[in-house]
Amino acid sequence: MNKKVLLLLVGTILLSLTTNAQRGIRIGYIDMDYILENVPEYQEASQQLDDKVNRWKGEIETKLGEVREMKKQLDNERPLLTKELIEERNEEIKFEEDQILDYQQKRFGPGGDLAIQKRQLVEPVQDQVFNAVQEISTNKKYDFVFDKSADVVMLYSADRHDISDQVLRSITRSAKRKQINSRKDEDAFDRDESKTVEQDKATLERQKQIEEKKNAREAALEERAQSREAQKAERQKAFEERRQRLLEERQRKKDSLQALRLAKTEENTPNEPTGDQTNPVDAKQAAIEARKRRKDSILNARKIRRDSILNARKNRTKTPPVPEDSEGDGGN
Questions:
Q1: H helix count then E strand count, the chain
Q2: 134-143, 228-237, 259-268: which has the highest mean pLDDT?
Q3: What local confidence, expressed as pLDDT, does residue 95 receive?
């Protein structure tokens, strides 16, 4: 495909050379990658897209970690599981892996979110570049303008034919013109317009060097921060592993003591004639019920005694008193 395009371009150029041999032909080219690197709006949107990509990668890594943990847990519990349970756990792990693959395809596949958002990010800048190239080509009377970063192979290109800075200057000028709100801004804009392309290029080169130093310094700081975080994570992991071993050892000792106590209890417990062992829960319940029955019996006896005493008091109160002179009157 590239060969066909190249042959078509060569043929077109030769035809134009033949037609316009007397006045000569003007050819220029641009470097789209260079222009994109120096458009602030594109860089800002590109950074936002990079943040999204990092977040998507983090989500995928988290899910992969969960799958790895599921596999590890299955390996540890495999001797205790039946064949059916092992197959069920494997199916669950396979389902999670398929979900991760689908998510990766959705985000990073050929038609995924990353490809779509990259295209949406580049298209507005491409339109601006196209309009700027049209304007420059008309004013400077260029016959052909190529994109150096495209599929067309350029075996040689002289710097004097590179109009990338002119295109970038045109895009920046249009953006700055929209931001003019005062006379001061307009004067600053006119001063910038009076600069030559070479001066702009030197300024951009200095800014690029400053930005590279800043990025290098930030990268070094980030690397040190990541190293500290990695060391902290390793220490935390070692602590958790030691803690888990201690807990497991403590649980084993506890289980061993409980087993010894249970064995000693079984040895001291006499066997019943039926040969059946009494359930500890049933024995406890029977003891509770026996205590309850004794308590109810005591309370009932107390109630009967109290009622007897109360009845006796009532009977003594109801008996009429005997008159003191009843015997004397009778004698008279």
A1: 10, 2
A2: 228-237
A3: 94
Q: Which residues pair with 145 in a beta bridge?
A: 28
| Three-class secondary structure of residue 29 per DSSP | strand
- Cβ atoms of 121 and 42 within 8 Å: the answer is yes
Both tokens of 196, joined, read 């030559």
Q: Report pLDDT for 310.
A: 85
Pair (121, 232) in one structural domain: no
CA angle 28, 115, 132 (to 5 degrees): 25
For 110-168, the pLDDT digits (tens) are 889 999 988 888 888 888 888 888 888 888 788 878 787 766 555 455 666 677 777 77
Q: Domain range holding 121?
A: 2-194
Q: Looking at the structure, do residues 14 and 134 belong to the same domain, yes or no?
A: yes
3-class DSSP state for residue 28?
strand
How many CB atoms are closer than 10 A to CB 136?
A: 19
The count of structural domains within the chain is 2
The Cα 202–Cα 241 span in angstroms is 58
**Quick one: pLDDT at residue 72?**
94
Q: Name the residue among 32, 233, 10, 217 with its Cα closest to residue 132.
A: 32
Sorted by sequence, the CB contacts under 8 Å of residue 107 that are 6+ apart come out as: 56, 60, 113, 114
pLDDT the model gives residue 239:
87
Q: Tell me which residue of 201, 119, 189 sits closest to 164, measured CA to CA.
A: 201
The tokens for 158 are 């002289």
Q: Are residues 178 and 202 in the same domain?
A: no
Tell me, yes or no, whether 105 and 237 share the same domain. no
Helix, strand, or coil (residue 144):
strand
Task: Supply the DSSP symbol for 39.
Answer: -
